[in-house]
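Whether sequence alone determines local backbone shape is best considered at the level of individual chains. The sequence in question and its structure tokens are set out directly beneath this paragraph.

***
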Amino acid sequence: LSLRTVNSSRSAFASFLFAPLFFQRYEAGGPQPDRELLRCKVLMKSFLGVFRSLPSLEKTVGKCLILLKPRASRLVVQLHCKYGVTKTHNLAFQECERLQAVFDTQRCASSLRAPARVLAEAVVHFPQTLAEVTLGAGPGGKISLQNYVEDEAGEPGGAGMMVTELQLAEDEFQTVAVAPGSRITFCLKEFRGLLTFAEASNLPLTIHYDVPGR
């Protein structure tokens, strides 16, 4: 079973894969020889609403049943609670399209790998309201993080604005293979969200980049 989502600007993509052994019971409805794998799309807000207040769900819900009903265009989620209470959520399908990120990490000239904690502690020094941050490879193998600012003429490095720069030594990373002098600028808010998830899951973070835009 796969769950995939993409943000409205299509700059961030997430995919979670669940093996059949993850579930107490798993009955796949396909594929048939002449049919594609079944897939559907539902509104994220509606789906997350079913599982809001996780501490409460853990105390009251014994099991969760998820059913796909293609003919009715419904994703049904049933929560079987204590005292015989069953809560059923019928989520309508949206117009479906394949959500899949297309990228080839083998073609990227630079890559970094580090524990999420290292990068999470680094971005703490930047204001919460900051929109973008620039990652660069400096002399001596040092990796720098710097806020990206523009002056009134639209040129980078705007005068009169506070610039924060943090340098990380190469030995703080698990692997470093970057092109000298390379720099990329990206959304700090999305990066913080990714770090929060990776740190909570105790996962390392791997960054692949080539030129701006890739």
Q: What stands out?
A: The chain has a mean pLDDT of 83. The first helix runs from residue 44 to 50. Residues 87 and 129 are 40 Å apart (CA to CA). The two ends are 29 Å apart (CA to CA).
